[in-house]
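As a warm-up, study this chain.
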Amino acid sequence: RIIIQTAGVVAGILLMVVALARPQKGETRLTSISANITILLDVSRSMLVTDISPSRLQRAKAEISGLIRSLRGERISLIVFRHKPVMLCPLTFDYAFATESLELAEPDCAIPGETDVGGALLQTLHSLSSQKNVVILVSDGEDLSEENEVLDEVKKCINLAKDKGIPVFTVGVGTEDGGLVPVSSEFGGSSLQGNVEIRSKLNPGLLRTIAEETGGKYLQISERSFYGNKLATFYLQYIRPVIKREAVELPVTLPDERYRLFLFPSVILLLIILVANGNSSSLNPRLFIKLFIVICNITLWSGITYGSSTGGYQSTREIKAKAYKLYREHRYTEAGNLYLLASTLASERDSILLRYNAGVCYYHSGNILKAVEIFRNIPEEPQYSSLIQKALGYSLFQLAQKTDSYEDRIKLLREAGRILIKLFRTSSHSDELLQNIFVVIDAMTKAEERFTIQSATARLQNNTTFDIANVLYAHQRDLALTIASAVTDSSPSDVRKCKEVAKIQKSLGYICQTLSHRLRNSSETAELADIAEKARQKMFEVAELVRKLDTRATNESETVVMLIYEIWKKLVPPEYLIVESITAQTNAISHTQKIMSSGIQSDRVRKELERTGELTRLFLQKFLPLEEKVQEQIKQTVNELANQAIVSQELALKHAIENNFTRSLKAQEASLEILQRIKKLLLSMKPSSEQKEPALISKAEGTIETGKDSKESLTSYEEPVDFNPSNEQDVEEIMKKIIEREKAYKTELRKRSTIPRGSAGKDW
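Now compare it with the structure written out below.
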C-alpha cells in the first residue's frame, strides 16, 4: 500500500506539473498579410560626422526608430555594415526587440575596413528570397572601393534586385558640404591620413541611381535640426504602397489548450490518497465527495475566470487572430465585435489600433453610423491621427450618401470636407486624398442644389404655375437691367455688387427649375418645360459671367428674359395682357414726349410700340376662346375696341419710324384710351368681389416714382463662405418678398382707378 500511495503521489504531482506547463494539442490555422523589410544601415566612421545633428549615425537611428513605430504587421530585420555586413536583428514581428537591436548599431559592431556599400547590398540581396521583400539602404553614399569595382557591384545589385523583384529604397544621410571624420580615439578630434584631415561628404548620386534603377525612391536627410520622423513619412507615402502589392498571406497557428486533461486526474488522484490516509478501509466517502466538489469547482472556475473576460478566448492575441479570420471571411460585424472586445483588454496604444480595426469592419459591413461613432471616439494619438481622421472623413461621406434628408446630408458632407481638407494641409499631400476632397465638394454642391430646389418647391406648392412664371419674369427683367450696369464697372463696390447679383441670379435659377418641374408634370404645358430648362441653364451661366465681370452677361441675361417671356405668353390670362399692354403704351408715350422736348432720338419708342401691339394681338388670340363665357354685347365691344387699338398702335409705329412724333403721339394716346376702356369692361365681367386688377410685371414710366434704384434691394444678400452656401436663404428671401408683393398689390389694386404702377419700382 505504501508503494501504491507513493506512486500515486508521484503520479499526481507529475500530472500537476504537466498541467501547469499548459500542454497544447491541435491548432487553428489563420492567415495574416505581411511583407519583409530589411534595413541595411551604414555604421562606418564617416557616419559619425556631425554635419547634421547630432551625427549622421544618430540621426539615421532616430529615423529608423520612427519607421519601426509606423509599421503595421510587417516583419523587419536589421543589417549593419562597414566592410562586410553583419546581422543585428533577424526578421521579426517583435518591434521592441528590433528597436533594442538598433541601439547597438555602432561602428564597433561591424567588421572594420573600407566601406563597401555595393558589396554589402549585393550580399543582402543574395540572402533574400524573391518578392515580398523590400530593402531600405541608409548611408552617406561613400564607397571607398575602387571606382571600377563600385560601378561593377552597383550594376550587379541592380540586376539582381530586378531579377528578384526587390525594390531598394535609399536614404542619404548628411550634407554635400560634409564634415570632418572624428578620429577613433577617446580624445576626439579629426581623422588624419598622411597628416591630412579627412572630410566626408554625402554622395547622393550613387544612392539615387540604386533607387531609381530598382523601382525604389530616394530620400535625402540633410536638415541640421533633429526631427526623427522624415523616414516614417517617406515609408507611409512610398514604401507602404509597394509593400501592399508585394504582401503575401502567412499562416498563423493558434494552439488548443489541453491542461485540464492533466489537471483533473491529478486532483482526483491526490484527493484519493489524501483521504485514504494510507488505508483503503479508512476512506471517508462523505469527506471525499465534499473535497471532490470543492476541487472540481475550483478547477472549473479557474477556467471560467481565465476566459470570462475574453469571451471564452485564452488571450487577446487569440481574439485578434479570430477577428482577422472573420474579417477575411467577410463576416465584418462579428470581426468588429471581437476587435472591440480585444480593445478593452489591450494596452492604451494597442487599443487605438484595435478600435480603428473595429471601425473598418463596421464600415465594410455597411454599419457606417457605428463606424463613424467609433472613429470619432478614438483618443487623440499623433502617430495614428492622420489614419483615423482619413477613415472618419470617408465614413462621413458614405453616411451622407445613405441619408435621405438633404439638410442632414449637407451637414455630414461639410464635416467630411473640413476633416479631409485639414488632413491635406497638415500631412503629406496625396493625389488620392485630393481627388476625394473634390468628390466630397461635388457631392455637397449637388446636395445643396437639391435641398434648395426642394425648399423652393415646398414654398411654391400653393402658387399656380402662372404665378411662378409671372414673378420669375418680373424678377428677371429687373435683374437684366441691373446686370447691364453692374458688369460695365470694375470698382470695388461694383465687384461686390456683381457677386450679390450673381447670387440672386442663381437663386432665380432654382425657382426656374421648380417651374420646369411644374410644367413637365402637366400634359398641356409639357412642351414649355424644355424652354424653362434652357432658361435655368442660362441663368446659372449668367451668374458665373456676372461673378467674373464678363460683359457677355448682358446679352445672355436678355436671352433669359426672352425665354421666360415665351413661357409667360403661353400661360398669361387675357386680363394680364391688357394691363401689360397699357403699361407698354404708357412707356411709349413717355419716351415720345421726351424726344419731342429734348430732340434726342431713341429707339425705345419703337420697341415699346412693338411690344404693346404684340400684347394686344395676343390678348385677342386668348380672348376669343373665352367668348362663349362672355355676354354678347360685351364680347362684341371688346373685340371692336381691341381691333381699334391695334390700328392705332400700327399707325403710331408708322409715324414713329418716319420721325413724325406729333402724329405718333396722337395715335398712341388714342390707343391708350381704348386699352383703358377694354380693361374696365373686363373688370365689369367679374363679380364685384373679384373686380381687382392683376399684379403687374412692367414699369409704367412717367406715372410712378423713379427715385428708387432696383439695385438697392441686392445689398441684403451676403457672400457665402467656404463650405457654407446660403442658396436656401436666398430663395427664402425672394419668396418672402414675392408674398409681400402680392399682398401689397391685392390691397392697392382695389383702390386704383388710374394706370397702376409697375413692379420695377418696388423694393424686391
